[in-house]
Amino acid sequence: xxxxxxxxxxxxxxxxxxxxxxxxxxxxxxxxxxxxxxxxxxxxxxxxxxxxxxxxxxxxxxxxxxxxxxxxxxxxxxxxxxxxxxxxxxxxxxxxxxxxxxxxxxxxxxxxxxxxxxxxxxxxxxxxxxxxxxxxxxxxxxxxxxxxxxxxxxxxxxxxxxxxxxxxxxxxxxxxxxxxxxxxxxxxxxxxxxxxxxxxxxxxxxxxxxxxxxxxxxxxxxxxxxxxxxxxxxxxxxxxxxxxxxxxxxxxxxxxxxxxxxxxxxxxxxxxxxxxxxxxxxxxxxxxxxxxxxxxxxxxxxxxxxxxxxxxxxxxxxxxxxxxxxxxxxxxxxxxxxxxxxxxxxxxxxxxxxxxxxxxxxxxxxxxxxxxxxxxxxxxxxxxxxxxxxxxxxxxxxxxxxxxxxxxxxxxxxxxxxxxxxxxxxxxxxxxxxxxxxxxxxxxxxxxxxxxxxxxxxxxxxxxxxxxxxxxxxxxxxxxxxxxxxxxxxx
Length: 491
Known about the structure:
Helix content is about 60%, strand content about 10%. By secondary structure, it is an alpha+beta fold. The strands form two sheets. Strands 2-3-5-6 form a four-stranded antiparallel beta sheet, with no helix packed on it.
């Protein structure tokens, strides 16, 4: 006979189980490794332009600073309806559901079962009865077995005690992976906002250049017509006519590609906002000026950039997840203990099912230890360690690539500002030349062809400025993307 367990003994056993459950094998995550510490603690970026930049933290919705309501509406629509965003949101819901599943693995499981059985036993006496005599006139009687009925209901529960932390490591890994997928969604939003803004800038640039090219073609046609009239009067040569004809045709040849590019930009914006081609034609076909850049651009510092970029956060979280998976596999080296219990009632009559005499119960600890697996667990641990090292290397690469991206974008933005300033000086000179030539033509000291030629040069300079402004805007967008801006917090 075993001694009946007392309350102090039960408390001691419970304390022992709790103490064992506090043991968690595998390496604890100590954070991401330091990468480029000098850059991470610098007060400014290496390639930041000397002018036009402020070190204050940049706003997340950077496109609002461009003061273009149509652009704001397009980006809002894209973030709400783009299929890539929906797919990333679905992956986030999946990751969070998997996290809840891992948490549930550490909790007890319980189930209820009930059954009603009815069967008939064979009549054994009929199998051993003697054969009657041939002349007997009597009849033999036999009694068949009655039906057998059995009713049962029970409740059972089991709980695998997480002695060595395998389940806790699995929860830790799933938590980090869910955080990484959340950062992936933010990265998708960052890329989408930048893609919409660049497509919108392309559209407005193409529309303005198309209008200027049409006006330039009209002026060149007027020059050609005047030169043909002069040739008819013998004051112009055939070579002048052919030269202007070639120029007119070259200008006209640029109209079709520009018109095609406008249609492509409209369709691209429709697709990015989750709509069919042509859905935005009525809304965006009218020409509008390019968005206006802010007087100064807030870029923060390298440390804020490294905190903001979602791809860095995703890489760091996946490093934490792979580190936890090492402990999850190491726990397989050790025994697993499962507590099992069952209570139930069994009776031949459903009305007597819950009587005290029909009650039964069982409770037992179950020990399982895979002591010989021919290196399977060790191979899983080595695989997890290799995955952790790979995640470590990917994190380092992501941080370095982010620093390069930000500095390259800053350098490109600064140089494009200088280039645009030069183009604006050229345009100012062309404007002054056209004004002077118009005065001379009014005074009768220059011909109409000279006036038209200066106006054509003026339009060409305007086209170059528009293209330069569009490039600067797209460089601004690329800069905001490199800073990791444009994502929204998901609930």
